[in-house]
Write a structure and sequence with these properties.
The protein is α/β, with parallel strands linked by helices. The two termini are 19 Å apart. It contains eight helices and ten strands. 36% of the residues lie in helices and 24% in strands. The relative contact order is 0.17. The chain has a domain at 51-60 and 92-261: P-loop containing nucleotide triphosphate hydrolases (Rossmann fold). A six-stranded mixed sheet has the order 6-7-8-3-9-10, sandwiched between helices. A four-stranded antiparallel sheet has the order 2-1-4-5, covered by helices on one side.
Length: 262
C-alpha cells in the first residue's frame, strides 16, 4: 500500500502546504468474483492547494479513474475522499452535484462549448445556470490571463481549436472553484496550441492561486506541473517534483522497462 505524502511548497520554508483534496485508502473496483477488476488499490494521496499536479501512467493504470473519483464524478468502492474539509464519498447525489457546480472546475479533451453562444456566454454559462452573477473583476482577470479579451463576442466556429480550449479553461476558472481537474486537456490540440493552453494553466496557478490536477500521457504537458504522480496497477508508485520533459520521459521509459521485465 502507498502512504500519504507530506507535501511542501517549493521555495518555501518547508512547512506543510494546505491540502485542497485528499484520498485515503481509496479502492475502486468493477465486477465481482473472478471478473473483479481493481482500478484503484488502496490509494492515499494529498493534493496541495495552489499547485499544479499532473497524474501519469500507462493505459489502464487508473489515472483517469483517480481523477474522476477525486472530482466526485465517480464513486469509490471503499475509502474516503475529501475536498478541503468536506468528505464527498458520503454525499447524496443532489449535494454532490451542488458541490461540483460550486467548488470544482473541469476541463476535458472535448471543448464542450455551445455553438450558439459567444465565447463570453460560454464562459459564464455555468454561473448563469446556477443563478449566480460573475465577479466582474475576477472575470476580467481570467479573460486577460487566457488572452481572450478580443475574442469574447466570437462563437466557437469562429475560433481556432486552441482558442476554444482557452474558452473552456476560462469557463473553469471564472466561477473561482477551489480546484480544477483536467483530463488530457490538450489531447485534441496541436503542439503550439497545446503549449498556449498549458501556459495559461501554469499562469492561473502562479498568478491566480488556482489548484489544478491534470491527467496526461505527454511528458511535455507534465513538465508544466509542480509535481507529477505516477500510477501503475491502480497504485501511486512514484512522484517527481519540478519535472522537466526529459526527466518525465526518462521516468516513463524506466517504468516501461520494468513492465517488460516483470
Amino acid at each position: 500500500m502507498t502512504s500519504a505524502v507530506t507535501i511542501t511548497r517549493h521555495g518555501g520554508t518547508g512547512g506543510r502546504t494546505a491540502v485542497a483534496a485528499r484520498a485515503r485508502q481509496v479502492v475502486k473496483a468493477y465486477g465481482s468474483g473472478e471478473t473483479r477488476v481493481v482500478a484503484l488499490d488502496h490509494v492515499d494521496v494529498d493534493i496541495a492547494r495552489g499547485q499544479f499536479t499532473a497524474i501519469m501512467g500507462p493505459s489502464g493504470s487508473g489515472k483517469s479513474t483517480l481523477m474522476h473519483c477525486l472530482a466526485g464524478l465517480d464513486t469509490v468502492t471503499s475509502g474516503q475522499i475529501h475536498l478541503d474539509d468536506t468528505e464527498i464519498t458520503g454525499l447524496k447525489d443532489k449535494k454532490l452535484t451542488q458541490l461540483r457546480r460550486d467548488r470544482v472546475g473541469f476541463i476535458f479533451q472535448a471543448f464542450n462549448l455551445l455553438p450558439t453562444l459567444s465565447a463570453l456566454e460560454n464562459i459564464t454559462l455555468p454561473m448563469d445556470i446556477a443563478g449566480r452573477k460573475p465577479d466582474k473583476g475576477w472575470l476580467a482577470q481570467v479573460v486577460e490571463t487566457v488572452g481572450l479579451k478580443d475574442r469574447l463576442k466570437h462563437r466557437p466556429n469562429q475560433l481556432s481549436g486552441g482558442q476554444q480550449q482557452r474558452v473552456a479553461v476560462a469557463r473553469a476558472l471564472a466561477a473561482r472553484p477551489e480546484i480544477i481537474f483536467g483530463d488530457e486537456p490538450t489531447g485534441n490540440l496541436d503542439s503550439r496550441a497545446g503549449a498556449e493552453v498549458l501556459g495559461f494553466l501554469r499562469r492561473s496557478v502562479d498568478e491566480l492561486g488556482q489548484t489544478i490536477v491534470m491527467v496526461t500521457h505527454d511528458p511535455v504537458a507534465a513538465s508544466y506541473a509542480d509535481r507529477v504522480l505516477y500510477l501503475a496497477d491502480g497504485r501511486i508508485v512514484d512522484e517527481m517534483f519540478r519535472p522537466t520533459a526529459d526527466s518525465v520521459l526518462d521516468r516513463m521509459k524506466d517504468f516501461d522497462a520494468r513492465g517488460r521485465t516483470s
